[in-house]
Design brief:
Number of strands: 31
CATH class of the largest domain: Mainly Beta
Bound molecules: calcium ion
Number of domains: 3
CATH topology of the largest domain: Jelly Rolls
Number of helices: 2
CATH architecture of the largest domain: Sandwich
Helix content: under 10%
Radius of gyration: 33 Å
């Protein structure tokens, strides 16, 4: 159990405020000035056992890669500061920090805690991030509390408690107020190596927030689309706990057009082991076994809190129909559209053809990665020709048939300057042995024409 702090109002208030004043002075060279939080009311206690949320953890013993490195950010901004000037090992000795800055600190004892306090002046999303010490034998956790002035207590605890070598992240939709942050040593410690942390404020954020860790992941099953979500700060991580109900193939797409940003989908198994990544605006087809996965969308560089991305997992279904968009043939017979010799609008081909189309499943959704075979049967000896292709991630396909023998010209059409001789031949589209409904079922197979002006 965590120690409880039962201090009188006077002691709690004065200890906190004097500690803040001292820290502000000690770190004045690197920290922006901030108004000290005003603490009033009764006793300041820590309401919850830090380790109680461990029970809810999946077996997250494997490293979870962090999207960025805070120590590099700290060095780059010149913001790194060792805040351990006084032993801030309880909330009454919490050190004042400000949002937007990066801090370094150390834990020097088994089971140790380090406490920080900050104030926000506007409601919004708070993101607290801990870059832990990269050691398999050290496991630090991160905790966020709101200070309730009415009761003088720390309330609404949020905890991020991944395993060793995983950075911790908490987000919370938070009113303006005073907040306490704590880093606790769950396993081991390193008195000589700093961890780094920061708290950032996001004035605007998407409706799925807070979803910055697996404990607040949205739940999705099989095919889904999320749209309207944004990356609202450089640390924002949007998590989805994803259930696949049977062995299925999915078309995966992370669409992002926010200028100057590069987002990425990261896919983890239920133990948070990495299964791979999907770059933005790429079409990816993947087969997944049934089970639980974790999905995380992050930015690899900048962010944009107003331009949303979308993420789609579309389950593969066998094609049921095709929409033929065009059939190309020799320039002298290819009108660029269907023509009508009197037997209806049909594409006209001669010695070769390329069929372009879109395959759809029974629901009308694009059928991706599906085999497509196109057959025609010419009149001379009923000779059959075929060509094959595979649909793209968007369900489109191109199938070519070359070396088609001449038509016999059993039909004729009296044109204005010539008479055309042609056959009407069947066109069939199959996928995996199943004939598909198509908007074209026959073609004009052009034979020849005789000059015959009217
Ligand atoms: Ca977000
Ligand atoms: Ca998020």
């Amino acid at each position: 159990m965590l120690k409880k702090w039962f201090l009188s109002l006077a002691i709690a208030g004065s200890a906190l405020l004097s500690g803040l004043a001292g820290q502000a002075e000690a770190s004045a060279s690197v920290l922006p000035a901030a108004a000290p939080p005003v603490v009033k009311g009764g006793e300041l206690t820590s309401p919850t056992d830090f380790k109680s949320q461990r029970d809810a953890l999946p077996e997250s013993r494997k490293p979870l890669e962090a999207p960025l490195s805070l120590d590099k950010a700290a060095r780059g901004q010149g913001l790194s500061v060792n805040v351990n000037a006084a032993l801030n090992n309880n909330p009454n000795n919490a050190i004042q920090v400000v949002t937007g800055a990066v801090y370094a600190d150390k834990i020097t004892e088994e089971g140790g805690q380090r406490w920080y306090v900050f104030q926000t002046n506007a409601p919004g999303k708070l993101t607290a991030y801990l870059q832990t010490i990269p050691s398999a034998s050290i496991d630090y956790d991160l905790h966020l509390f709101r200070y309730d002035p009415a009761t003088s207590s720390l309330v609404e605890q949020e905890t991020s408690s991944y395993g060793p070598q995983s950075n911790e992240q908490i987000s919370r939709i938070a009113p303006a107020g005073i907040y306490f942050l704590a880093v606790s040593a769950y396993t081991g410690f390193d008195a000589n190596t700093s961890y780094y942390f920061t708290v950032v404020e996001s004035p605007s954020y998407d409706s799925a927030e807070p979803d910055d860790n697996i404990w607040h992941a949205q739940e999705k099953t099989d095919s889904f689309t999320v749209s309207g979500q944004t990356i609202d700060n450089s640390l924002d991580a949007d998590w989805i706990k994803y259930t696949v109900t049977a062995a299925k193939s999915f078309h995966i797409k992370l669409a992002n057009n926010a200028p100057g940003t590069t987002y990425q989908l990261q896919i983890f198994n239920q133990n948070l082991g990495s299964l791979g990544t999907v770059d933005q605006n790429k079409d990816v087809d993947a087969s997944l076994t049934p089970g639980t996965y974790y999905l995380r969308v992050v930015s690899l560089n900048s962010y944009n809190a107003s331009v949303p991305y979308s993420l789609t997992f579309s389950e593969y279904k066998a094609p049921a129909s095709v929409e033929i968009v065009s059939i190309k043939s020799e320039p002298n017979v290819d009108a660029g559209k269907r023509i009508d010799y009197g037997e209806g609008n049909k594409w006209r081909i001669q010695n070769y053809m390329t069929v372009t189309g879109l395959a759809k499943d029974a629901s009308g959704a694009p059928a991706f990665n599906a085999p497509i075979t196109v057959y025609i049967q010419t009149k001379l000896n009923n000779k059959i020709y075929s060509g094959t292709g595979t649909t793209s991630s968007n369900g489109t396909f191109n199938v070519a048939i070359n070396g088609i023998q001449p038509a016999i010209g059993q039909n004729l059409f009296y044109g204005y300057v010539s008479t055309h001789y042609y056959d009407i031949i069947p066109l069939l589209v199959y996928s995996g042995g199943t004939q598909l409904n198509a908007n074209d079922n026959s073609l004009y197979h052009y034979a020849y024409s005789i000059y015959n002006p009217h």
